[in-house]
Design a protein that fits this description.
The complex is a heterodimer of chains A (97) and B (339). Chain A has 97 residues and is of the alpha+beta class. Chain A has a 5-stranded antiparallel sheet, covered by helices on one side. Chain A is globular and about 50 Å long. With 339 residues, chain B is of the alpha/beta class. Chain B is globular, with a radius of gyration of 20 Å. Chain B starts with a strand and ends in an 8-residue tail after the last helix. The chains are: A alpha+beta (97), B alpha/beta (339). The interface between A and B is large, with 32 and 41 residues.
């Protein structure tokens, strides 16, 4: 998917989380985030596997199944005060029956 | 399903006067009323006279602080007594909150409690605002800002005392909640139908009045104001959104925003359901399961969401929708969908 879309999402996420970091598009297709001395790289996962993204924080590379998981990993790394809210989305059909 | 209208507003803003007038109207017959008062000895319920086919229950203490116990117990008792024929067969419920109550926990309860979900549906939030003291109250009392921000309808009371409604107050209310129409009550008198149309549920035709609920009128343009850190804006997307992307969006908002997402409501064009739009509704981190309209209420088939937040940028929600829709579309092997 478009690198621009993901870059915009990450940049807007920093704003939403009130973190004054920045996002850079790298030539190899990855995205580099920097905030408060912490560097994070987000890149597409190798094709053929179950994961869509790889997130590298301080040299540790971990997979992510979706952008939702990427956001969770990034925020956990950048925002020590973050405690995710319990998600309470009721079970419901995705389309009308 | 029995619609529940939540009537809120700061202390002295005219809720009880409004309610007293409404209960005298034929349109408000067969109404069960729950009045919540702060303090052990209630008074407001003595000021409200119900007709023979309506009745009033009283709770004391702050409803938003012990809502799980008191409100659920009261509503459960009402429903059981209705089923047993021990109370008039009411067709709607009005909850008048304490003036100090944060309406959000009350909405949470109505949206999530299994008993409530089976028999009751949120019919809307109406907030009364005192034309004389409203501006000072908004300056001083944070909860009053939340009461205004969460409203589907705002009712300006006591404007007969204030003369013309103060322009500063009107502009401030418009900034705090641009989507909620502002109604005027004259000595507590107001057209009941104007309040019935406040929520998702339209008791007249048992359908969703989505355009009204979203605050859409002849001028649908929403601005981007801010007041006391609260913003209201509309997110509009032309392209249908995959159902999974909508689920991921709601989960992400709930996970990351918490109390900063005061309210989100909207009508969404789901890619897999082009003729039946989804209606979504969330308060803070709690979301209703989406409901489905039988058809589009107008020719406008764009997804439209009204968002009331404290500090969540519009750009983030738009970027989330676009990125999640693109990811889901790519994962499902179809063409990329976006704004």
């Amino acid at each position: 998917m478009s690198q621009d879309l993901v870059a915009e999402l990450l940049a807007q996420s920093l704003v939403a989380w009130r973190l004054a970091g920045n996002v850079r598009r790298m030539a190899d297709g990855s995205l580099a985030l920097s905030y408060n001395g912490i560097d994070i790289t987000v890149e597409p996962a190798p094709p053929g596997g179950p994961f869509r993204w790889m997130v590298t924080v301080a040299g540790r590379r971990r997979p992510a199944v979706s952008l939702v998981a990427v956001l969770r990993q990034v925020r956990t790394a950048l925002d020590p005060g973050y405690a995710k809210n319990n998600v309470r989305v009721a079970v419901a059909p995705l389309v009308p029956s | 399903m029995t619609p529940v209208l939540v009537l809120t507003g700061f202390l002295g803003s005219g809720k009880t006067t409004l309610l007293r007038h409404l209960l005298r109207q034929p349109e408000f017959s067969r109404t069960a009323v729950i009045i919540n008062e702060f303090g052990e000895i209630g008074l407001d319920h003595d000021l409200v006279e119900a007709s023979d086919d309506s009745f009033i229950a009283l709770t004391t203490g702050c409803l938003c602080c012990k809502v799980r116990d008191d409100l659920v117990a009261t509503l459960d008792d009402m429903l059981r007594r209705r089923a047993q024929g021990r109370v008039p067969p009411f067709t709607r419920v009005v909850i008048e909150t304490s003036g100090l109550a944060d309406p959000a926990p009350i909405l949470h309860t109505l949206m999530t409690d299994p008993i409530m979900a089976e028999y009751l549906t949120l019919g809307g939030v109406v907030t009364s605002v005192d034309a004389v003291t409203g501006a000072a109250t908004l300056d001083r009392e944070a909860v009053s800002i939340k009461q205004v921000a969460l409203a589907d309808r705002l009712v300006l009371t006591k404007s007969d005392l204030a003369g013309a409604a103060p322009p500063e107050l009107l502009s401030r209310l418009a900034r705090l909640n641009v989507a909620a129409p502002l109604l005027h009550a004259d000595h507590g008198r107001i057209d009941p139908q104007a309040l019935f149309g406040a929520g998702q549920y339209d008791s007249r035709d048992k359908s969703f009045d989505v355009r009204s609920w979203l605050g859409e009128g002849p001028d649908e343009h929403l601005h981007h104001p801010h007041d006391a850190d609260i913003q209201t804006y509309a997110v509009v997307r032309e392209a249908p959104i995959p159902a999974v992307a909508l689920t991921l969006l709601l989960e992400t908002l709930a996970e990351h925003c918490g109390a900063d997402l005061l309210r989100l409501k909207g009508i969404v064009n789901i890619r897999e359901s082009p003729d039946r739009p989804a209606v979504i509704h969330g308060v803070q981190h709690v979301f209703h399961a989406p409901t489905w309209l039988a058809r589009w209420p107008s020719d406008d088939r764009r997804s439209r969401m009204v968002v009331i937040t404290r500090g969540i940028p519009q750009g983030w929600i738009e970027a989330l929708i676009d990125a999640l829709a693109a990811e889901v579309a790519e994962a499902s092997g179809s063409q990329t969908l976006g704004a």
